[in-house]
Amino acid sequence: MVEIKKTTKTNFLNVMGANPTNRIIDFLIENKRDSWSMIEIRDGANVSYATLKTILPKMQKIGLLKITRQIGKSKLYTIDEDNPIVKKIMLLHKEIIQESEMFINV
């Protein structure tokens, strides 16, 4: 089993706001190498299950997420790194993290 890297108040969230959508995006970018069930995303992004059930279908509809596989009734999700919007979000995420580290290391 893969260890879930929980989303804490990261510099990305400090800049962009720690709303549920940003917490989910931050979690999925930080853990992009794996696929996650809704329960794992809920726990890792620290959002309620009801909120996740509302946000995840919207994110999937606009192409931010993709289903990688299904185990029984459970779907596993990951961020869709091929989506042009996701590429820009990931670049922004990286730049925010790098810029904030420069200020921390000064």
What kind of sheet is the major sheet? 2 strands, antiparallel
Uncertain stretches: none
Number of helices: 5
The CATH architecture is: Orthogonal Bundle
CATH class assignment: Mainly Alpha
Write out the strand line-up for the largest beta sheet, numbering strands in chain order: 1-2
Helix content: 55-70%
**What radius of gyration results from the CA coordinates?**
14 Å
Name the CATH superfamily assignment: Winged helix-like DNA-binding domain superfamily/Winged helix DNA-binding domain
Coarse shape = globular
C-alpha termini separation: 38 Å
Can you give the mean pLDDT? Answer: 89
What are the secondary-structure elements, in order, as H or E?
A: HHHHEEH
**Portion in beta strands:** 5-15%
CATH topology: the name is Arc Repressor Mutant, subunit A
Give me the secondary-structure category.
Answer: alpha+beta
